[in-house]
C-alpha cells in the first residue's frame, strides 16, 4: 500500500482519563511539519487528549528532547514525534535518519513509553508534501493514532 491510497487512521478508544500527550517537533521544513502537527492535533482532539507541543532545532535533537521530557517533572501518557529529513547531496542524510530513528526507539524501549513517530525520511519535498497534506494519508495523524493505541495497550496491561 502506498501513501496515496492509505486509509485515514481511526481514532483509537483509550480507556480511563483523557490522555496527556507531548508533541515534539523538528520544524526545519516548517510547512511539512505544520501539516503533520495539524493532523496529529485533530486526531488527538477527537480522542479528548490534552496536548502540549515543543519545538527542537532539528531531527538530530528529537531523541534528546524525548529523553529530557522524561527527566522533567511533568508527566505525559504518550509522545508524538514529528520531523522531516530530505535527502541531499551528501551522506549526512543517512547519519541523521539512522541516528534519530535509532535514538527514538532506544528511548522508547528503554523507558517503556508510548511513542508515535512521524519522522519523514524522503528523497524529495514532493514526497514529504504527500505525507503531510491535509487530505489523504497524513503521517502526523498516523503517529498520533499509534501513540494512542500504545497508551490504550499500556492501560490494558496495567503498565500505565
Automatic annotation (TrEMBL):
Enzyme Commission number: 2.5.1.78
Gene3D superfamilies for the chain: Lumazine/riboflavin synthase (3.40.50.960)
Family annotation (Pfam families): DMRL_synthase (PF00885)
Residues given in the record as (2S)-2-hydroxy-3-oxobutyl phosphate binding sites: 89-90, 131
Binding of 5-amino-6-(D-ribitylamino)uracil, residues: 28, 59-61, 84-86
Keyword Transmembrane helix (UniProt): no
UniProt-listed GO biological process terms: riboflavin biosynthetic process
Catalytic reactions of this protein: (2S)-2-hydroxy-3-oxobutyl phosphate + 5-amino-6-(D-ribitylamino)uracil = 6,7-dimethyl-8-(1-D-ribityl)lumazine + phosphate + 2 H2O + H(+)
Stated name of the protein: 6,7-dimethyl-8-ribityllumazine synthase
Organism from which the protein derives: Acidiphilium rubrum
Amino acid at each position: 500500500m502506498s501513501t496515496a491510497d492509505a486509509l485515514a487512521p481511526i481514532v483509537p478508544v483509550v480507556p480511563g482519563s483523557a490522555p496527556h500527550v507531548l508533541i515534539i517537533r523538528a520544524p526545519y521544513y516548517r510547512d511539512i511539519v505544520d501539516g503533520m502537527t495539524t493532523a496529529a492535533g485533530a486526531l488527538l482532539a477527537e480522542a479528548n487528549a490534552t496536548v502540549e507541543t515543543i519545538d527542537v532545532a532539528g531531527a538530530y535533537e528529537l531523541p534528546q528532547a524525548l529523553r529530557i521530557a522524561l527527566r522533567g517533572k511533568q508527566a505525559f501518557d504518550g509522545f508524538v514525534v514529528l520531523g522531516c529529513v530530505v535527502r541531499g547531496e551528501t551522506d549526512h542524510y543517512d547519519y541523521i535518519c539512522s541516528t534519530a530513528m535509532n535514538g527514538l526507539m532506544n528511548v522508547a524501549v528503554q523507558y517503556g513509553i508510548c511513542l508515535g513517530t512521524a519522522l519523514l525520511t524522503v528523497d524529495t519535498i514532493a514526497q514529504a508534501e504527500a505525507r503531510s497534506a491535509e487530505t489523504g494519508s497524513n503521517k502526523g495523524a498516523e503517529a498520533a493514532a499509534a501513540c494512542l493505541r500504545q497508551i490504550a495497550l499500556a492501560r490494558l496491561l496495567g503498565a500505565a
